[in-house]
């Protein structure tokens, strides 16, 4: 009996084990949960988001993954069960979705999962507002102009002056981390050589991307990096728009209007910008020159005023050919008129002779007309996510007429009271074409290919005129008058490969460019003809770390091509004692750029640090010297200087950069950024010695939100002293304050801004060469008050939530 019972128990155990066998087999049938995370507001992919599976019973962790560049994710090796899928993205609401995997359906494709933005963004450097004012990623900085109150009423110059690590001098030259020759893009396309930052109103700009180490996708030109300015263009249904008017102290006025009308597959858009402003300034010069046995000292002070009037308009249309194809055609037409008057008082002292007093009037009259027409095509494939084809054709036509002159108002007999003029007529035509193709090779890799051609042609003339004895007519001086022709053709192709393997991201690329530069001057003088082929590699490696961290290393090779005014040997006189002339023998400078960056978010604190090194070969420098031959032939008791260009050995720029944002209170946030670096230049004297200094930049922005509708910004900027091939430029610092009150349920806004409230911004330069030393001080009008009013139409009413920030751009991993 006992044996029988034992046998029955054995059978029951065996049956129980047999019953468990399918469950055990089922447990081995591992599945996958996949999908794509998208921004709910604009359907843009969300990269580097965390996706985890939690057990539905106890919320315990099972498995996780991270989204790729296109927002795709896949959680693999998951057993059949009921789960809660949770996705977290910095700056977005947490996303949750219940899912069930079964033995018959072990894998689940969730498709597009849309995540809503939140009111706080921690990934990158953020200032409280509807959008992040500054997003500081490792490969680029994105500045949302609508939230930068310190550019209200200003131009693109004001915008860039508030960008970390960027400085703009009073002549409009942009430098990035102390390196000039920055390439300016507008809407992803290189701006023509005639483009002026001070003619683009800040109200027309949507955002600015500062790309310190561009990938092979970008043109290799621009040794300092790339700044991409994106213009506003609404694409929402119905009528939408924004109207802005600003009034500044001492005769400064500007206005802008942006409108769009979208119906069905058509979106019509247009804009108008107007500016009428007067600017005042002063300066002085102290210069000592020795020619032979004679030493002449120049002491000069000046007062200047200039007036600028600008009107520009843009019209265009977007047409959705199909669900996957879109065509955009647009045209810009602008006209600028300006003049400048400068009163100069000069004392010339030769050796121990009595000083000679001179009074001169310098003037500059300019007119410019520009037409910019473009067509863009974009195609995607519904059955192949990430596959994309884009094409662009752009044509630019520019006409410029400039008259520069100087009149002697009072002086000794050696300086007759006569007037000298130079009249410039410039015509420029630019035709560009580009095709880019992105081909996905898998869920986490893709290949980018592109071709580009850029053809620039410019011609013009310089007429040198001298006033006749009757003081009523001018006679052309043929010996100093020229006609010129210049042509630049650049043809390029590139390929980049990008892949994600676990927590690693890789990108490598190669760009090839063929450049042809030709020019001639009539009468024949200084003709040139240069042709060269260059290869420009780029590479980036990034890794995500625990605790919302990312580290990245990148390298790129770039060049700086001289412009036609640096090539053409045309003598251009700023006055009768100083002139500038090109050098047809100069060569492009080549740059190797390295960066190592780290970024981390700790609660509401975001920190970004970067180490950089930029090496420039065949460094191109501007050199000012005494023209001894012209001085001797002039027969006057002073001297004549010549400014030209030369290649000088190698320069090095290396240092560190840091950005941090920290909330102090619910209504107060601080954003600080700075850089500290060393500049090394080869001495212009050719003795092989290097000149170097330590310098840096700093920016501190305080943002206050005392009420839900009032924003206040207090910003201080500092740029340390910078060495040049012949001297140094002193440090510059300033403080701006601005406040904005939103009105009518965010339909309008009233803004008050005062730039350089302590009136400290000025430019001081020291210069020396053989037999010449000079000190320049220039103080432009920088303390200006602006009062502005903006009104929003239709659906363009600003959101009260912070967006993730602009995507794209092509720098590093921002393609």
Give your account of this protein's structure:
The protein is mainly beta. The chain folds into two domains: 27-114, Sandwich (Immunoglobulin-like); 238-794, TonB-dependent receptor, beta-barrel domain (Maltoporin, Chain A). Helices cover 5% and strands 63% of the residues. It has four helices and 46 strands. The protein has a 22-stranded antiparallel beta barrel. A six-stranded mixed beta sheet has the order 8-9-14-15-12-13. β32 (589-602) and β33 (605-617) form a beta hairpin. It is elongated. The N and C termini lie far apart (80 Å). The model is unreliable at 1-7, 13-28, 119-132 and 798-815 (pLDDT under 50).
Offer a concise description of the structure.
The protein is mainly beta. It has four helices and 46 strands. It folds into two domains: 27-114, Immunoglobulins (Immunoglobulin-like, Sandwich), CATH 2.60.40; 238-794, TonB-dependent receptor, beta-barrel domain (Maltoporin, Chain A).
List the total number of helices. 4
Q: Which superfamily, in CATH terms, is the homologous superfamily of the largest domain?
A: TonB-dependent receptor, beta-barrel domain
Number of domains: 2
Percentage of residues in DSSP E strands: over 45%
CATH architectural arrangement of the largest domain? Beta Barrel
What is the molecular shape? elongated
Spans of at least 5 consecutive residues whose pLDDT stays below 50 are 1-7, 13-28, 119-132, 798-815
Q: What average pLDDT do the residues reach?
A: 83
Q: Which structural class do you get from the secondary structure elements?
A: mainly beta
If you consult CATH, what is the topology of the largest domain?
A: Maltoporin, Chain A
- Distance, first to last CA: 80 Å
Give helix % range. Answer: under 10%
Give the radius of gyration: 31 Å
